[in-house]
Amino acid sequence: MAFETATGLHAEARAVPDGLGRTDALLDIFVEGHPVCFAIEIKTIDRFQALGAIKAREGAALHPPLLVAPYITETTAERCRELHLPFIDEAGNAYLEAPGLFVYVTGKRRPPQARPTTAYRAFTTAGLRIVFALLHQPDLIVAPYREIAKVAKVALGTVGDVLADLEARGHLAPEKPGPRRLLAPDRLKDEWVTHYPIKLRPKLNTRRFTGAIPDWWRDLDILPHHAYWGGEVAAEKLTGYLKPARVTLYVEGKPDRLILTNRLRPDVNGDIEILEAFWTTKETRLPDDIAPPLVVYADLMATTDPRNIETAKLIHDQYLAQTQHTA
């Protein structure tokens, strides 16, 4: 085991008892003969956004989480350390922190077998639109392909390939003996949140601005602009817990009137971002000016900011956990 060679510590994996949820295994790290137990989550990490999702599940586990990945780059390792998210990889890179234990090893080269995985059809740009539509509107899973395509705003021909991919990877029960239904939608949500900022969000015609005055947005009625609050502003409105440092708006159609009315100045480094609203379904549990909770959650998780991740947990527990097994 590369970890033992790199650190000189002995480690033993063991099976997961019933009731530990998404934990893939348990790993005991022996320090002076005494085990320190971690709950393993095995995952390929090719972007920072996956780290926040793993860290967000920390409070639900009996043991601290341990990311086990094929390879962790030095930059990703540093981000894990900032988040206090322990990890080990196949090369021997590791970060562990617990009472009586601290390990930080980086810079070891990627082993030949730890190559990036092939992208799945469900996590292309069009696939993410379809997956979101199915998660946001669970009854859509039994609808004809044409209706799914209309709601997801994609070409009809993409629907079959995406559903086939979901079925092949165990996310979707086949239509026969039927009916189609999502399996473990909570895991699918995690995958969507991980891929959204990488594949779909960059395609939403994002533009950045600076406001003429601080807190220009606080008393703004955005409904006449066909817009929705996302990210930190939405999180504050939903939880009252977060003081926004960035403003995110999703807009249906052109945002020109919103920009002119509020005297927003183009600025590539601005703290205001305006994106295309990509969904068509309505969220009845939220105010009309808030983006769907899965989008708000994904916005927060993509930042890997600890304060945002903490707030994302509140949104997950209040708006997502209650519906994750309804499909």
Summarize the structure.
The chain is an alpha+beta fold and 327 residues long. It folds into three domains: 104 residues, Trna Endonuclease, Chain: A, domain 1 (3-Layer(aba) Sandwich); 64 residues, Arc Repressor Mutant, subunit A; 120 residues, no CATH class. It contains eleven helices and 14 strands.
How many domains make up the 3D coordinates? 3
The overall pLDDT, averaged over residues, is 86
Q: Strand order, biggest sheet?
A: 1-2-3-4-5-6-7
What about the largest sheet? 7 strands, mixed
Can you walk me through this structure?
By secondary structure, the protein is α+β, with helices and mostly antiparallel strands. The chain has three domains: 2-105, Trna Endonuclease, Chain: A, domain 1; 121-184, Arc Repressor Mutant, subunit A (Orthogonal Bundle), CATH 1.10.10; 204-323, no CATH class. 35% of the residues lie in helices and 19% in strands. It contains eleven helices and 14 strands. The chain has helices at 2-7, 49-56, 74-83, 125-136, 145-152, 156-168, 185-200, 231-239, 256-261, 293-303, 306-320; strands spanning 10-14, 25-31, 34-42, 65-69, 87-89, 94-98, 101-105, 172-173, 181-182, 207-210, 227-230, 247-251, 265-266, 272-276. A seven-stranded mixed β-sheet has the order 1-2-3-4-5-6-7. Strands 11-12-14-10-13 form a five-stranded mixed β-sheet. It is globular, with a radius of gyration of 21 Å. The two termini are 41 Å apart. The model is unreliable at 323-327 (pLDDT under 50).
